[in-house]
Structure formats: structure tokens, C-alpha cells
Amino acid sequence: LPPGLTKPYTTTPEEAAQTVKMAAKHFGASVVGTCKLNRDWLYSHRYHVENWKTDAKDLFTKVFGLEKGLLGPVMTPEERKKLQMPNVDDELPQEMNNVIVCGIEMDYEAYQRTLSCVEIAETYRAYSFDKFLIMHLALFINYMGYRAWPFGSYGPGLGIPMAVDAGLGEMGRNGLLINPDFGPRLRICGVITDMPIQPDKPIDMGVTKFCETCGLCAENCPSGSISKDNNRTSEAVYSTTNYGVKKWPFDACKCKAYWDDHNISACGNCVH
After folding, report:
1. What Rg value do the Cα atoms of the chain yield, rounded?
2. Total domains, the chain
3. Does 270 map to a domain?
4. What's the rounded Cα separation, in Å, for the pair 98 and 148?
């Protein structure tokens, strides 16, 4: 508990959810929802770059085996062990089973200029701002007497299914969250907590049916990473996709290889 607080702030789960949503909006969230934590969305492994003496690109290649869009066994078990940190599921107490999921809007006009410095700058503005948002929200929850684990766009788990569970939208053909107000122009972040909060419900806004007949993101993907097939699958088609959830497969390795080949840090066509 923080200094001066003898016990956690107590209220109804409904009021607690309303309070943290107001706080998240105050700190800059464009949209916010709540859900129960599904531990299937947590990453099975974590790695720390400081444990490996190499440049970032070589690190990515060694950890993920990225060679022109393909995964291969380029790191030995001993090398991988040097990088590995404790898994999130092992470190995260079971009582921390609620999530406040936030979305940060990226500027519409900036994303009309994909593959430009304007679009890339807006992308990283959102990535930077999510740290400000989640740290303030986590501190707010701490000062109410509860534990809080903030997470940005890169972890400790899959933000898109958490956002779907929190009612912020549905997953589209492009593998991104499609929100009713902002479409795919959201960066996702949030806080995992043991504060009792009322979860929101997933929504059905017709994204799957729309994506079946649209397909523009797949047609305009320069790397061919987005599936043009109308049949979704629950199989792990690529080494970077999970099984068990019916969706269009997305080839993240092919996408990243395109960035490397063209010396860019983001593309954005699937958002545009």
C-alpha cells in the first residue's frame, strides 16, 4: 500500500471500472475497455537485449531466426537461455486477473501518407505516448491500494485479443483491431491489475462479414503478408501465428523482411 493508505479503496466493480476509465481518458486514452485476463494471451518467453552483446538487428535475427521471411534454428539452446527472462505467467500473481485496455488514436491525415516520414513519425508518437499513459494509470491504481502491471504495444502479451475481449473492436483480415470510431488507427496498451473491476463484453460490429467482401488491405499489401483467401482458419499457418482462434493468417516474418529490404521502420498500408 502507498504511504498513508491503510487499506485498498473499496467500491463496487462497476464503479471501479468507471473510475479507471475516467482516469485513462484523462491521461490521454482515445478508447478504453475492461476485461478478465485470458492467460493464453500472455507470451510464453521473454528476452532481454542487455543479456546479448550484439546489435539490435542481429539480435532479432538470432532470437526469431528471421532470414528473408523464414524462421530457422539459428540460435542454440545455450544462446537462447542467456537471453531468456522469467515468463510473465510465472511472475504475474493469479489474483492479477483484470485488464484495463486502452487505445491511442493515430492521426488520420498522417496515415493518408503511408511510407512517408509523416506516417512513421505519427506511429512512433503513439508508441511513445502509450508509456506516459500506462505509467500514470498504473500509478493511479497503485495509489488506490492495488497492484498494477503496465504494458505497452510490445507486451507482456497479445494486445489485440485483449482489446477484443474488452469490447474495443474486432480483429480484421489485416490482423489488426478494427474499432468502430477509429478503424485500425489505434495503438494498444493497458494495465493488468488485481483491482476488482466489471469487465466489458466483446462486440459484434460486422467486421468479419465486411472483410470477407472487401480485401483491399490484402490487395495493397506490398509484401503479400495478408491473406487473400476468404477462408479463415484456427490453425497456426505461420510460425508467428497462434492456433485455436479462427482468423485470417498474417505472415509477420514476410512483413518484417519487407521493412528490412526497403530500409523502413514501418509500412502502414494495412492501416491506410
Report:
1. 19
2. 2
3. no
4. 10
Q: Is residue 198 one of the residues assigned to a domain? A: yes
For residue 87, CA distances in Å to 48, 77, 123, 131, 153 come to: 12, 16, 28, 21, 18
> Do 67 and 133 reside in the same domain of the chain?
no
Task: Tell me the pLDDT of the chain (272 aa) as tens digits.
Answer: 777 788 898 999 999 999 999 999 999 999 999 999 999 998 877 655 555 444 444 555 555 544 443 444 445 667 666 666 666 777 888 999 999 999 999 999 998 888 788 888 898 899 899 999 999 999 999 999 999 999 987 778 899 999 999 999 999 999 999 999 999 999 999 999 999 999 999 999 999 999 999 999 999 999 999 999 988 999 988 877 888 889 999 998 899 889 888 878 778 899 98
CA distance 259 to 56: 15
Q: How far is CA 255 from CA 160, 229, 240, in A?
A: 18, 17, 11
- Quickly tell me which residue has 473510475 as its cell: 19
DSSP 8-state symbol, 86: -
Domain span at 80: 46-85
- Are 53 and 30 found together in one domain? no
Question: Residue 212 domain-assigned?
Answer: yes
Beta strand ranges found along 109-218 (DSSP E): 148-151, 170-171, 177-178, 186-193
